C-alpha cells in the first residue's frame, strides 16, 4: 500500500510556492548552521575563556549573555521557518491564522514566515 501525499491547496501559483519553499529551506539551513556556532545547550556550551582576571571574567560573562540573546533570536526565527514549511506541506500556507483570509503575496515575499495578514497583525500589535 502506498502512502498518499496531500496535495497543497493554496491560492498561489506553483512557481510562487516553489520560490517560497526554496527561500524558507535556505533560511532553515542558515539558521541551523548559526545555531550550531552559538548554542549554549548541554555539552555544547560555548562559555568564552579569556582568563582569570576580574576584567577578563566580566568580558566572558558579557559575551556569554550576548550569545544567549542571539541564540534566543535565532531559535525563534528557526521555529517560525519550520512552522512556515509545515504550513506549506499542509496546504494552508498564505492563509491568515486569525481571520482565514489570504495573506498578500507581497507580504509573504518580504516575510515568508508570516502567518497573519497585515490587518490582523496591526490589530494584534496595537493590543500589546
Describe the structure.
The protein has a domain at 14-94. It is built from four helices and no strands. It has helices at residues 14-38, 54-90, 105-110, 118-127. Helix 1 runs antiparallel to helix 2. The model is unreliable at 1-8 (pLDDT under 50).
List the helices and strands and how they pair.
Blueprint: H1 14-38, H2 54-90, H3 105-110, H4 118-127
Key terms for this structure?
mainly alpha
Concise overview:
It contains 4 helices and no strands. With 128 residues, the protein is mostly helical.
Mean pLDDT: 82
Number of strands: 0
Fraction of residues in helix: 55-70%
Q: Beta-strand percentage?
A: under 5%
| Gross geometry | elongated
Task: Assign the structural class, choosing from mainly alpha, mainly beta, alpha/beta, alpha+beta, or little secondary structure.
Answer: mainly alpha
Measure the end-to-end span: 50 Å
String of helices and strands:
HHHH
Rg, Cα atoms, Å: 20 Å
Low-confidence region ranges: 1-8
Tally of individual helices: 4
Biggest β-sheet strands, sense, barrel:
none
